[in-house]
Amino acid sequence: MPPPTRAARKSPRSYHHGNLRRALLDEALATIRTEGVEGVTLRDIGARLGVSRTALYRHFADKRALLAAVATEGFGMLRQRLVAAWEEGGRGDAAFHAMGVAYVRFAVDNPAHYRVIFGGFVDPRAKEPELAIEAQGAFQALVDAVAALQRDGVFLKDDPVHMATYSWTLVHGIAMLAIDGQLPEPIGVDELLRYSFKRMRTGILAEPPGPRAKR
Fold this sequence. Notes:
Blueprint: H1 6-9, H2 20-35, H3 42-49, H4 53-57, H5 63-88, H6 93-109, H7 111-118, H8 129-151, H9 160-179, H10 189-204, H11 211-214
Helix pairs in contact: 2-3, 2-5, 5-6, 5-7, 5-8, 6-7, 6-9, 6-10, 8-9, 9-10
């Protein structure tokens, strides 16, 4: 029997040509979706793509570096969605709600990125300049929106970082429950977001002038 051809030995996602770094990231994301972050190893990813260790290490020295790249990409995607929601929503109260929806939708659409970002697998404060910049940029988009609404008299004049963090913890909790399939029936993501933002706003909206405010 003749030996199998090279094509027959390759996996369905074998790497043929083009951007190897992109292929490594895509394979890592596919692995995370099916096996979790713990299932990612450079050796297995390289074997599935049919590339040598030497080729792998030209792009990523180890698993930590690969996950840092996934997180950097994820933070950048999240920042873009938040900024787009703010700008397209008119930079007002409704736009802030749209940012919350965009945040949760990002998590639902990109659970592999989200788990790497917030699963304790990377440290944005570590010596990864690009990761730190993208992580800070995503959070700053929220801080900037809060500050703008404070200037417009919509939100209370609390510390904008504290208020942004408070808002983030709310949407982060919803996002994690959503991607883990833990939301109780019949509550869906959209319904929970509407209710949560309605309740949250009672605590951060500036009190309108009137008899009660003067007391």
